[in-house]
Write a structure and sequence with these properties.
By secondary structure, the chain is of the alpha+beta class. The protein has two helices and eleven strands, in the order αββββββαβββββ. The strands form two sheets. Strands 3, 4, 5, 7, 8, 10 and 11 form a seven-stranded mixed β-sheet that branches. It is elongated and about 95 Å long.
């Protein structure tokens, strides 16, 4: 003699099966996220309607180990347009500095530095003037996360970037 399951019993079995599936799915997802490789931070650069992702030019641990190297990213910044950088939180919350390289009409280079101290704490966006003076033209930016290092021989302290993102902006 065969007994038929009531619609209520079938519904309960379906709910139980969905619950088991959901718990298993969440468990697998947690394991995958925990074991996923951590990605290096990426900066987004924007100028004159074009956006590029800037991966690190160099990225090391703060002990200067496990270094990975990339390349300079090109983004043309025309005259009278700013360069805008969108910083990931892990960069924005760090004490960063940016080396700005400007060119004079004769080809001479002038370096300027800005840092996190020039902006609100944790600012996620930075705007850089491509022509702060009539004769200056922005040709490159290197955003760095510096660490304090010490020369073993002389004992002198200096700053060394453990991470840097490089952008060529010459139009």
């Amino acid at each position: 003699m065969s007994e038929k399951l009531s619609p209520r019993a079938i519904g309960a079995l379906v709910v139980a099966a969905l619950l088991v599936f959901t718990v298993a799915f969440v468990g697998v997802l947690v394991v995958l996220v925990r074991n996923a490789d951590e990605h290096d931070p990426v900066i987004t650069a924007y100028a004159h309607g074009k956006t590029v992702d800037v991966t690190p030019y160099v990225y090391c641990t703060v002990q200067m180990e496990d270094c990975r190297y990339g390349q300079t990213i090109e983004l043309k910044v025309p005259k009278d347009y700013p360069l805008q950088l969108s910083l990931p939180k892990q960069v924005a919350d760090a004490p960063w500095l940016a080396q700005l390289v400007y060119a004079l009409p004769n080809g001479d280079r002038i370096d300027r530095v800005i840092s996190h101290a020039n902006f609100d704490a944790g600012a996620l966006a930075v705007t850089i003037d491509s022509h702060p003076e009539p004769d200056l033209r922005l040709v490159g930016v290197e955003l760095q996360l510096p660490i304090l290092a010490r020369d073993k021989d002389t004992g002198k302290e200096f700053y060394l970037p453990h991470a840097a993102w490089s952008i060529s902006t010459a139009a």
